[in-house]
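fyi for ur records
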Amino acid sequence: EVQVVESGGGLAQPGGSLRLSCLVSGFTFSDHWISWARQRPGKGLEWISEINPDARVMNYGDSMKGRVTISRDNTKNTAYLQMISLKPDDTGVYYCMRGIDWMFDYWGQGTQVIVSS
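which gave:
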C-alpha cells in the first residue's frame, strides 16, 4: 500500500521559516520524481517545486521561487521543502505528490501552514 505523509506544517510568523517533510512508503522512492504543491484558501492547487529521483534536478514555480528549497533523502524515503521568508499569503495546505508535470498519482493529506503574527 502506497502511503504519502506530509508533516512539518504549523504556525509561523511572517518572515519565518518551516521545513516540510514527506515520508513515503509502498513504492521505490528513489525511482520517482517528487513534487510539492499547495492550496491556499479560495484558490486552486498551485505547483511549487519538483525534484528528480537522484536529486540532481530541481525545478521551482514562480510563486515561491527564491524562498523554497526542495531536497530528498532516498535513504530515508523522505522529501523536504524548506521554506523561508514566509508571508501571510503562503497560508494554505501543502501537499507532497509522486510525479511530475501535473501527472501525479499519489499524494498525502497535506500539512497545514499558517503564517500569521
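The radius of gyration is 13 Å. thats all i got for now
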